[in-house]
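FORM 7B: Structural annotation worksheet

SECTION A. Query
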Amino acid sequence: MNQDYIKPDNWSIIEEGFDAEMVKSSESLFSIGNGAMGQRANFEEQYSGKTFQGSYIAGIYYPDKTKVGWWKNGYPEYFAKVLNAPNWIGIDIEINGETLDLAVCPAVKNFRRELNMKQGVYNRSFEATLQNGTQILVNVCRFLSLDLDEVGVINYEITPLNHNATIVFKPYIDAGVDNEDANWEEKFWEPLDIKNSGNEAYVTTQTFKTHFIATTFMQNSILLDGENQNVSPSNVDASQEKIRFTYEVQTAKSQTVSIQKLGGYTVSLNHENTQVAAQNSIRKALSFGYDQLLNNQIIAWAKIWEMSDITIDGDVKAQQGIRFNIFQLNQTYLGKDSRLNIGPKGFTGEKYGGSTYWDTEAYCIPFYMATKDQQVARNLLAYRYNHLDKAIENASKLGFTNGAALYPMVTMNGEECHNEWEITFEEIHRNGAIAFAIFNYYRFTGDYSYIPEKGLEVLIGIARFWQQRATFSTAKNQYVILGVTGPNEYENNVNNNFYTNYLAKWCIDYTLEQIQKVSLEYPQDHKRIIETVTLSDAELQNWKKVAANMYFPYSEEHDVYLQQDGFLDKELVKVAYLDKSQRPINQKWSWDRILRSPYIKQADTLQGFYFFEDDFSKEQLEKHFDFYEPFTVHESSLSPCVHSIQAATLGRMEQAYTFYLRTSRLDLDDYNKEVEEGLHITSMAGTWMSIVEGFGGMRVKNNCLHFEPRIPSQWQAYSFKINFRNQILKVAVHQNETNFSLEGETAISVFVNGAAILVEPNSLVTV
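SECTION B. Predicted structure
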């Protein structure tokens, strides 16, 4: 049974009624971020129930020493973690001498949370009766400014309902925070300095080992019925790592008292002096004032939605799902800083360490290319180019030579920091996703300049890796790739994973093509690169030999490529015959049992058919889909979106729709029973693809956009926009027609079901 307490709504995530069992899930679902920082939806006031406190700063991490039972050569020395940052949102509250804590209030009614995705604002309200009999109404509004991305804002209002009240606000900053997932229960932050002046406070801390400095700040104003009281704290309580102010306000029944708290982080990544920067952030925020900051937030989000919104008519749950996904992607990464990337949990939890995975290249780049300008996607590619030396170093630690590059499975700074051997050493397909992203970027944007400037060196390092990683099998008289884990992590240490072998061949062939093209069209860059990497004809011949003679496991009986050499040795019992009480198997079964089973965690062979669909016929896709999907448990967040796209391609709209709902509402409905750990940010880009590439059938072929629009029977219409080479095309699909309109200067040709149509600026074309 999936959770279903989130109310369906087109623009908001809404929870009604207080349920202590759902607090941790809601802390994930109502998370907010602005690309530079983010936080779980923890209560500002004290809460003694089960909670997972989390605030995070982009780019700030700690190398937590690896913890393994048996050390093997080549293990990464540490697992990089995004840090639970000092908490600036906290406000202890006392009413007539009693602490406000929803876990112990005798009565809580009309509890409501709303994450307004249109405006980027999180609201919470409730009525509570305290143990001393005082009844209060509370309204809280919180947002992280997109304009001033070091600043967050809280407006916390209390109205006594049944008699006058003495209300005490105790806002604080606390740097004494822990990570839930620390390997050695170490502290990650060292307090350096604590300062306060008037209504402002600053706690400056430094990370152990990495020495990032962060100043966490707050500024408080007390208002009575909307009028600023211009009061200073009556008490300041400071320790080495925490500072707390006290404000006491006498409030008449039905009068509303509020604290407006500004807070946030300034970090040494961006500032010489973080304390001065924090003071400047407060000055800037105060010069706007609360109402203007809120208004600016609404305008900034309107601008994002203008380009990235997808509308769905006639299906509120589907509409809510896609907007939630688009909203969270934009909260996590806005593309302003090429030092940053997209962690699988974003700013919503600690799992996966907040690091960069292959998800960025395989799933996220298409979303950012089409909904922002190409510079954002270029920044994501530049991130990997900037880590090329580290990728070469990572490969050399495993015994590779001559500039072969193995990009890390998990990284913060280019160094591998994932410490499960079957992933770290064997899930090498991530290298191919990085090469594919370079190809995909050029295909979509038409900007070839990236390849001679930076991309070709990355491709050469990757091609060298694949050539060295392949082994010549005299028995098969072909090249094989042994001991790998494909995207399907429910098979470890297998030989000849089809997806990995296919990627390896493709990467080498593609790199050879680009070397040729750069030598003809960019001779200066070609000369520079060949001298830098010392590439010889003899080496290129070795590459060609491997690519031309790569082995792909195949079953004549089933007429399909095999996921890996031993797949048919398994007991091939389909998922339909699995006892539902055994799901999800990753929480119910031993790892040994999973590895021997035929069950597929996520699209594996089909991931290859998704990337390289032009290499296969529709009949081949259908055969492989029908063979593998019945064994797929979709226990990876990255699985349903690929299946949705392929089901739509095959015209199986009911199946495509089911997969779409699963990917778009994965977290809202908690399909995998783990949402309290955080959201699945990177797979949310796959949800976008399942509409645009799946239902919309969008592809780029020969520098032109192609569409094969389809629509689920449950929808009346849907629409999306694509920024294709600085031309903004809007596509609106109805049950019996598709409309195209263009914002731009010049007409463009697009193909619909194979036929060319011309779309003129500011006019509607109906097909």
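SECTION C. Observations
The CA atoms of residues 50 and 255 lie 32 Å apart. The radius of gyration is 27 Å.

SECTION D. Sign-off
Analyst initials: ____
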